[in-house]
Amino acid sequence: MEHIRMPKVENVWLVDRSSSRRTQVGTLYLTATHTIFVGKGSEDRNELWVLHSLVCNVVKHKASQSGYPLLIHCKNFQVIQFIFPQESDCHDVYISLSRLSRPEKYEELYCFSFNPNVGKAEREHSWDFLDLKAEYSQMGLPNKLWHVSPINREYRVCDTYPADLFVPKSVTLPVIVGSSKFRSRGRFPTLSYYCKENHATICRSSQPLSGFSARCLEDEQMLQAIMKSNPESRFMYVVDTRPKLNAMANRAAGKGYENEDNYCNIKFQFIGIENIHVMRNSQQKLIEVSALRSPSMGEFLTGLENSDWLRHIKSIMEAGLFISKAVAEEGVSVLVHCSDGWDRTAQVCSVASVLLDPYYRTLKGLMVLFEKDWVSFGHRFSHRCGHLIGEAKEVSPVIDQFLECIWQLMEQFPCAFEYNEKFLISIHNHIYSCHYGNFICNSQKERKDLCIKEKTHSIWPHLWENKLDFMNPLFKPDQSQNQGLLRPSTAPYCFKYWRRLYNRFDRELHPRQSELDSLMTVKEETQQLEEELALYEQKMAVLDKEHAKTLYMQKGVLDSKQALWSLPLDTSLANTPQDYISGFIGGAPNVFTLQQGERESAEVCLYGDKTKSSDADNSDQESGVADFSSHSSGEESLPSEESVKDPDSDETGPNRA
Amino acid sequence: MEFAELIKTPRVDGVVLHRPFMPTVEGTLCLTGHHLILSSRQDNTEELWLLHANIDSIEKRFVGSLGTIIVKCKDLRVIQLDIPGMEECLNIASSIEALSTLDSVSLMYPFFYRPLFEVIEDGWQLFVPEEAFKDLESMTDEWRLSEVNKDFSVCPSYPSLLTVPKDIDDESLCKAASFRHGGRFPVLSYYHKKNGMVMMRAAQPLTGTNGRRCKEDEKLINATLCAGKRGYIIDTRTIAVAQQAKARGGGFEQEANYPQWRRIHKAIERSNVLQEGLIKLVEACNDQSHSMDRWLSKLEASNWQSNVKEILTTACLAAQCIDREGASVLVHGTEGTDSTLQVTSLAQIILDPACRTIRGFEALIEREWLQAGHPFQQRCAQSAYSNGKPRSEAPVFLLFLDCVWQILRQFPCSFQFNENFLIMLFEHAYASQFGTFLGNSVAERLKLLLSQKTVSLWSWVNRPQELERFLNPLYEPNNLVIWPSVAPQSLLLWEGVFLRWNRSTKCLDEAYQEMVHIIEYNKELQNKVNSLRRQLAQLETEDGPLQTP
């Protein structure tokens, strides 16, 4: 590959940022698709694989005595620190990675070279795993009021919409065309969700080009038709998810929002969700807070508040709740839009769908929701996730916020979701990894032009195969309250910091034993027991008949002495104390901080013999003085016999059983 | 009976009760000496039985002749009573106020409560120092049980029996006691079986400004060190606070006089600051404004989570010194009755698997809190809604329980008890029908004749019927030391206590029930499979001879 200046560097340090004890030396390889670190020594080879497409940015840090540090920030919130002995190596890797992580063409993305050992037929089949047509028919469409319009088959009316769109049957083609001309980027009102029980719908569009006074008869007819397709209702809501001020400012540019006087029987409502730029900055601040090394509680909470992140999540949730209540409780249809109708609109429509319909709380249902409301409706994945080098201003964590809304709901309704947190995190990872073709490009048309289905694989069958990992053991689909609308509380204290996502790779921060994993193990064992029981009962029946002439005992699935599930405890972690002196266990290793002079570090280490110190930390810990009086600053490193054998993986599964 | 004088209006009809997340109930309000009772006299409606002792404060409001009393409870619940008639309302309010602030301990409900269950195992006899010492004796012969405090004259807040180094005689103990705040000389708190290291606790030394020293005190704590070994003194105060204490006669151990000890200062807040924090936190949780910004900054301003973090960190440090450094530890703050006990008891939960069982945890509370002289009566006199001038109330014990809950969250399979057990202890520490948490010390409890006149909380809790609610279905004994994370990202707000009355718990309760169900079903299957397997094996052996030719 022309971009790789240096395919291999030896004697590179991989720094575990949470504990100096686990810093290891090894060889770094750069391939066309991955950065690979292979730890030296010990029989269980430690490998770290990082996809270039997951790399968010690469930063060189000031040189220290131990070498030249390079920090890699990933889009899945992993932060990796290498230290190179040679400046030139560090620079070469830096230049190579900077280029490799910023592909210029789609063809450079990993999904185009990813080639698992499956045949062509199987790959094509993977794209048939989800069938939106079947999904709409599951929803009850088409019916006598709604049908698929062929108008966008060639993407001529709207190139960011899918080919197949549901519109009211009563609407004529000229009305659709007229309405689309009156909407930003031609994104005319079309159906997103249909409620079989009461015929109310959620429709979506972009903002109208109303300016200060413009109106469009066809657009008005369009809304009228949507309202009338819900025969029971006498009005419909039009929800503009932007803050009122933003919407008003848009009027000056010839855009804007619906004038209630021009449209019959609409109730217009603003819901102030901020734009992509505000969200990007907010998440940036949140990431900084999550990555703080040894923050005080005050720093953390203040940082969390100043990021405004949870306030934004709350506003999205409230919007989703408003819409789902309108549909389920009032039986009123809702048209949702923002500016272009592919960010906030997608968020709000899909949150409302999750609240409304238990189907979207199942594994398959959530996949469908992603395909329907996000992929097919032209959420600009490439721009928002920064798949290709381009406008940094187009990047925004819109999809992260949707995933987080679901997570917040899971916290309030532990039995309502078939999937668990790992499923959300796995989807998050794959949205950014470009490992599969689903989340490439900005629209269906672009994907078609690029032949995504012919050249890449689909993520969904892959996740489905691993569904055992993603099941929520507490899921109770039959529970009455899980049937209809979920009514989450939106009190501020119900919105929590999502540690498992933002500190995903900081193993020390997560519970050492996982309730989820334990319950999953128990459920699995229960299933085996059920099988075994059936087998024995069958045998007993046979024995009764034949008076047990011959019997070949089959070995049981489980040893009878094993009374319970295996202890799901990560022994090594449970048995490793952390950095309790500077507060946070995740202090960067002493030696580097000291030499980088990032903070004035007092010599804080417990006196006594230090086990196995590595060559890197050689200067700072011979002191026999423990100065614990300074609890505010400084790092320390307590010797621990466990440290050496602690396995390090790039993926933090929660504790293994 | 003297309560009658305080009850101006014993009953009012047509009172409407509003409780969060429950339907309103209309009924008759009755006041008795110890309870506020609201009964609708209908089937299927829950009655309200509220201990006066549980009432933290009340507010009155009037709209016309309809009076409203807002009752704020020590368990943080807020209920509202609409009472027709101004006079009735005023009478009820003043009666509640009087009855909920009785000064005399012997008028408290535990002295009047008669259990409706048979006491099989008397909780008062369950955790006696002699028994604990027997366990210690089986591990080491370095310690003895001293009776120096048998009439509580050496240290009024200590129990009569204390575990001290074998080689230190009672006379030295008296001298060391005179050198420690409140006479709380260093005593054994915990013996770490794995390596023989110990944790001791005391109060601050009375060095004063001129650096007084006490040879007996030095000898006493040095006696706990192995030859050539050093130990740590964990002072729960910052160095600045410890310095200031000198001016009032207190102080800390000077390096020169304690050369074998390294002193570590931590920053656990004083109890009056903790009380302010609790008030602010509960205010934030009850804030109805629903603005995200205000919630997080108020949570931060309460400093509650910071206190949790600091206490846990200190406890982890103590545990680390003992288990990892192989060093003995002495913990103290100022009086040695608050932050000291938080640290020593939490360190034991981290180190000693026995403390993570129900019995072990009860024993820990007896040893490290009740017998160690935490002034429960004073500290729990008021809770988060106290509006008067704070005296000596402080949520020291609640913070300890919060820290235990944090560890429980991080090690959900390592504790025999569940969150409900901790919440129950919180409730009973503040208001109870049982005598366990009355009084401030062993001496006071003896004087009150609690063990004769009241029922112990443990007598009730340990009944199998009650215990069931408190068992953690995920429990699997884990003999390891458990090291919790103390990072802010890892510490959560204890919603089970602080948001308990502010949200519906229906979904969470159902999730818990489902978890119990999953595990019980598994056990049931396990039993079935095992018994079938045995039957089959038996049949096989019976039929065995037939097979051989």
UniProtKB/TrEMBL annotation, chain A:
<keyword id="KW-0378">Hydrolase</keyword>
<dbReference type="GO" id="GO:0106018">
    <property type="term" value="F:phosphatidylinositol-3,5-bisphosphate phosphatase activity"/>
</dbReference>
<dbReference type="InterPro" id="IPR003595">
    <property type="entry name" value="Tyr_Pase_cat"/>
</dbReference>
<dbReference type="Pfam" id="PF21098">
    <property type="entry name" value="PH-GRAM_MTMR6-like"/>
</dbReference>
<dbReference type="InterPro" id="IPR010569">
    <property type="entry name" value="Myotubularin-like_Pase_dom"/>
</dbReference>
<protein>
    <submittedName>
        <fullName>Myotubularin related protein 7a</fullName>
    </submittedName>
</protein>
<feature type="domain" description="Myotubularin phosphatase">
    <location>
        <begin position="126"/>
        <end position="502"/>
    </location>
</feature>
<dbReference type="GO" id="GO:0012505">
    <property type="term" value="C:endomembrane system"/>
</dbReference>
<dbReference type="GO" id="GO:0004438">
    <property type="term" value="F:phosphatidylinositol-3-phosphate phosphatase activity"/>
</dbReference>
<dbReference type="InterPro" id="IPR011993">
    <property type="entry name" value="PH-like_dom_sf"/>
</dbReference>
<keyword id="KW-0175">Coiled coil</keyword>
<feature type="active site" description="Phosphocysteine intermediate">
    <location>
        <position position="338"/>
    </location>
</feature>
<feature type="compositionally biased region" description="Low complexity">
    <location>
        <begin position="629"/>
        <end position="641"/>
    </location>
</feature>
<feature type="coiled-coil region">
    <location>
        <begin position="512"/>
        <end position="546"/>
    </location>
</feature>
<dbReference type="InterPro" id="IPR000387">
    <property type="entry name" value="Tyr_Pase_dom"/>
</dbReference>
<keyword id="KW-0443">Lipid metabolism</keyword>
<dbReference type="InterPro" id="IPR030564">
    <property type="entry name" value="Myotubularin"/>
</dbReference>
<dbReference type="GO" id="GO:0005737">
    <property type="term" value="C:cytoplasm"/>
</dbReference>
<feature type="binding site">
    <location>
        <begin position="275"/>
        <end position="276"/>
    </location>
    <ligand>
        <name>substrate</name>
    </ligand>
</feature>
<dbReference type="GO" id="GO:0046856">
    <property type="term" value="P:phosphatidylinositol dephosphorylation"/>
</dbReference>
<feature type="region of interest" description="Disordered">
    <location>
        <begin position="608"/>
        <end position="657"/>
    </location>
</feature>
<dbReference type="InterPro" id="IPR048994">
    <property type="entry name" value="PH-GRAM_MTMR6-9"/>
</dbReference>
From TrEMBL, chain B:
<keyword id="KW-0472">Membrane</keyword>
<dbReference type="GO" id="GO:0046856">
    <property type="term" value="P:phosphatidylinositol dephosphorylation"/>
</dbReference>
<dbReference type="GO" id="GO:0048471">
    <property type="term" value="C:perinuclear region of cytoplasm"/>
</dbReference>
<keyword id="KW-0966">Cell projection</keyword>
<dbReference type="InterPro" id="IPR010569">
    <property type="entry name" value="Myotubularin-like_Pase_dom"/>
</dbReference>
<keyword id="KW-0256">Endoplasmic reticulum</keyword>
<comment type="similarity">
    <text>Belongs to the protein-tyrosine phosphatase family. Non-receptor class myotubularin subfamily.</text>
</comment>
<dbReference type="GO" id="GO:0010507">
    <property type="term" value="P:negative regulation of autophagy"/>
</dbReference>
<keyword id="KW-0175">Coiled coil</keyword>
<dbReference type="InterPro" id="IPR030564">
    <property type="entry name" value="Myotubularin"/>
</dbReference>
<protein>
    <recommendedName>
        <fullName>Myotubularin-related protein 9</fullName>
    </recommendedName>
</protein>
<dbReference type="InterPro" id="IPR048994">
    <property type="entry name" value="PH-GRAM_MTMR6-9"/>
</dbReference>
<keyword id="KW-1003">Cell membrane</keyword>
<dbReference type="InterPro" id="IPR011993">
    <property type="entry name" value="PH-like_dom_sf"/>
</dbReference>
<dbReference type="Pfam" id="PF21098">
    <property type="entry name" value="PH-GRAM_MTMR6-like"/>
</dbReference>
<dbReference type="GO" id="GO:0005829">
    <property type="term" value="C:cytosol"/>
</dbReference>
<dbReference type="InterPro" id="IPR029021">
    <property type="entry name" value="Prot-tyrosine_phosphatase-like"/>
</dbReference>
<dbReference type="Pfam" id="PF06602">
    <property type="entry name" value="Myotub-related"/>
</dbReference>
<dbReference type="GO" id="GO:0019903">
    <property type="term" value="F:protein phosphatase binding"/>
</dbReference>
<feature type="domain" description="Myotubularin phosphatase">
    <location>
        <begin position="123"/>
        <end position="498"/>
    </location>
</feature>
<keyword id="KW-0963">Cytoplasm</keyword>
<dbReference type="GO" id="GO:0005783">
    <property type="term" value="C:endoplasmic reticulum"/>
</dbReference>
